[in-house]
Each structure stands twice: as structure tokens, then as C-alpha cells.
């Protein structure tokens, strides 16, 4: 049977802190025995590459 997950204000604060400022990425919350035990944050950075610079670098 499924149990209710207990989410305290402290955990909500921690989750909010991890979400703030992420443009691209994943926030993963790990739960054991109906309790949050871990938050993982994987953030991606995306960069625009100028095509002419990219082609010039390939020729070197």
C-alpha cells in the first residue's frame, strides 16, 4: 500500500533553493520509506557557438 509522504517546511525550503536559478537541468528527489532523504541537482549550461568560429577551428 502507498503511504503519504511527509514534506516539512524545511524540505520545501531545500527544494525551493535547488530550483531557483536553474535554466536547464533536473531536480531529482529521492524518497525512502515515505520520507524525502535526498535532493540531486543536475544543471546544464548551454552556449551558442558562432558557426564561422566553429568552422575556422575545424580547419586548424
Summarize the topology.
Elements: H1 9-19, E1 24-32, E2 35-44, H2 51-59
Antiparallel strand pairs: 1-2
Walk me through what this model shows.
- Helices cover 33% and strands 32% of the residues.
- The chain has two helices and two strands.
- It has helices at residues 9-19, 51-59; strands spanning 24-32, 35-44.
- The protein has a two-stranded antiparallel sheet with strand order 1-2.
Quick synopsis:
This protein is an alpha+beta fold.
Descriptive keywords:
2 helices, 33% helix, two-stranded antiparallel sheet, alpha+beta, 60 residues, elongated
Task: Provide mean pLDDT, rounded.
Answer: 86
Q: Estimate the global geometry from the Cα principal axes.
A: elongated
* Largest sheet features: 2 strands, antiparallel
- CA distance, first residue to last residue: 62 Å
Give the SSE string.
Answer: HEEH
Q: Total strand count, please?
A: 2
Oligomerization state: single chain
Radius of gyration: 20 Å
Annotation field: number of helices: 2
Strand order in the largest sheet: 1-2
Strand content of the residues, in percent? 25-35%
pLDDT under 50 segments (min length 5)?
none
Helix content: 25-40%
Amino acid at each position: 500500500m502507498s503511504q503519504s509522504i511527509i514534506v516539512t517546511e524545511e524540505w520545501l525550503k531545500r527544494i525551493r533553493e535547488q530550483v531557483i536559478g536553474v535554466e536547464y537541468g533536473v531536480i531529482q528527489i529521492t524518497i525512502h520509506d515515505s520520507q524525502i532523504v535526498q535532493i540531486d541537482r543536475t544543471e546544464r549550461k548551454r552556449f551558442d557557438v558562432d558557426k564561422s568560429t566553429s568552422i575556422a577551428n575545424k580547419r586548424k
